[in-house]
Amino acid sequence: MTNLQRRLRQLNQTPFITVGLIIVMVVVYLAMTLAGGSTNVNVLIAFGAKINVLIQQGQWWRLIAPVFLHLGFTHILMNMITLYFVGIQLEAAFGHLRYLGIFLLAGVGGNIASFCFSDSLSAGASTAIFGLFGAFLMLGESFWHNAVIRQLANTFLAFIVMNLAFDLFTPGIDLAGHVGGLVAGFLAAYLMGVPRIGKVNLVKRLIATVVLFGGFIWLYLHGMAQ
């Protein structure tokens, strides 16, 4: 175990945000199942899936609610396994609240991108999970001198490329949401900072903040105008 890994374990023994998010999503999934099925379109709409026309009518909360919804057992199982193993590492690195902020901003960013570029109904934590991948890339860019972080960033970069390539050839996948979440998570990680590991360049943090929220506004307005 490296000194960095020991330090992170000492700082954060209980990833309660990650575990809490998983519990919430499982509870929502069970509620959807009891309401008629998590793949039932009417149930998905009632629980807050991303539907462009409803967002255009003012239901802006559909830009965050889809993160907590899943379509079927396999969908939630794969997402929760990924969220747990990725989340516990990032929650240790960023801290509880910063990590939660990255997760939520990435989820919103992915859904806004989907709202702008895709007309399909969509739901799932994948937008936010791709944002967590983006946060790993931010760590790699900011702390490239650290061998452990560099190795993790390279691993996740290869994983991201494989996933996006898979998305291109798989029908029904919200590619815009995944890419939007990835970019939003990368920028949100700069915005939040990572004092548990080290200082992040202030200019980069300011630029990332402007690009993140400027992008949110532009994509949302563009989607509303369609």
Please characterize this protein's 3D structure.
By secondary structure, this protein is mainly α. The chain is built from ten helices and no strands. It has helices spanning 3-11, 16-35, 41-47, 52-56, 73-94, 96-117, 126-142, 147-168, 175-192, 202-225.
Gist of the model:
This protein is mainly α. The chain has ten helices and no strands.
Keywords, please?
226 residues, mainly alpha, 73% helix
Mean pLDDT: 90
Structural class: mainly alpha
Number of discrete helical segments: 10
Report strand %.
under 5%
Largest sheet: none
Query: Radius of gyration from the CA trace?
Result: 17 Å
- The number of strands is 0
User: Helices and strands, in N-to-C order?
Assistant: HHHHHHHHHH
N- to C-terminal separation?
Answer: 52 Å
Percent helix, as a range, is: over 70%
What sort of overall outline do the alpha carbons produce when their principal axes are compared? globular
Unreliable segments (pLDDT under 50, ≥5 consecutive)?
none
Set down the secondary structure blueprint:
Blueprint: H1 3-11, H2 16-35, H3 41-47, H4 52-56, H5 73-94, H6 96-117, H7 126-142, H8 147-168, H9 175-192, H10 202-225
Helix pairs in contact: 2-5, 5-6, 5-7, 6-7, 6-9, 6-10, 7-8, 7-9, 9-10
GO biological process, one term: proteolysis
InterPro entries: Peptidase_S54_rhomboid_dom (IPR022764), Rhomboid-like_sf (IPR035952), Rhomboid_protease_S54 (IPR050925)
Transmembrane segments: 16-35, 63-85, 97-115, 121-140, 152-169, 175-194, 206-225
